[in-house]
Amino acid sequence: MMLRSALTAAALLLTIGSTLPAARAAEEGAEPAAQNWSFAGFFGTFDKASAQRGFQVYKEVCSNCHTMHLMSYRDLSGLGFSEDEVKAIAAEYKVADTNDAGEPIERTALPSDKFHNPFPNDKAAAAANGGKVPPDLSLMAKARGEGGETDGPNYIYAFLTGFHDAPAGFQVPDGLNYNAAFPGHVTAMPNMLTDGAVTYSDGTEAKHEQEAWDVVNFLMWTAEPALEQRKHTGVKVILFLIIFAGLLYSVKRKVWANAH
């Protein structure tokens, strides 16, 4: 009797254990495929042409819902935009301000101003988006993932290209959307990137995957604009340490040569 009970318990544990990975996979979403990002690795650098296109995608599509509170227009010079281009981009927007008399006014945005907020406040943002405020995208590429340099970018790319029809038997509540990469596979955000969602100023064909690729490059740059400088400094430090170690070894051999 005890043996039968033990076998039954073991079988139950095996059954539960076999269903856990599937349940966890459904809850967590599909594992994002690793992408070949130019900024990855010890010598990684930004593809600034792609990041500039990504800014265009953000500006024309994403900025209708998402803010970038940490970004100012003048920061775009780090992507290669000229001073005149930055001024022209900023001038497309109006910002609230006060005049010398302390009266509220609306003026043309300057390069020193923060990126335009599509909503006057969080309550308005939530009301326009099903009760939830769309997340700020300034640091999104670093916020997603589990610490690896490309975890966040891989996830965002998988999410932006993960909108599909739900598989047979999967129920998507009204007003929500199926996404293979999103935890639980159900998200309030619709698929905003489609073929031709933007017309690239450099003539690049605006396919869905290209738009997602470019905006991820832009989001990685906004999250870590000093990435290239940090990596270049790291290379210099390592080269210095290698040379310094060689000099120390040479001095040690010369000093102790007569002791042997």
Automatic annotation (TrEMBL):
It is found in: Membrane. Keywords: Heme, Iron, Membrane, Metal-binding, Signal, Transmembrane, Transmembrane helix. Heme c binds at C62, C65, H66, M189. InterPro entries: Cyt_c-like_dom (IPR009056), Cyt_c-like_dom_sf (IPR036909), Cyt_c1 (IPR002326). GO terms for cellular component: membrane. Its cofactor is heme c. Its main location: membrane. PANTHER family: CYTOCHROME C1, CYTOCHROME C1, HEME PROTEIN, MITOCHONDRIAL. This is Cytochrome c1. It comes from Inquilinus limosus.
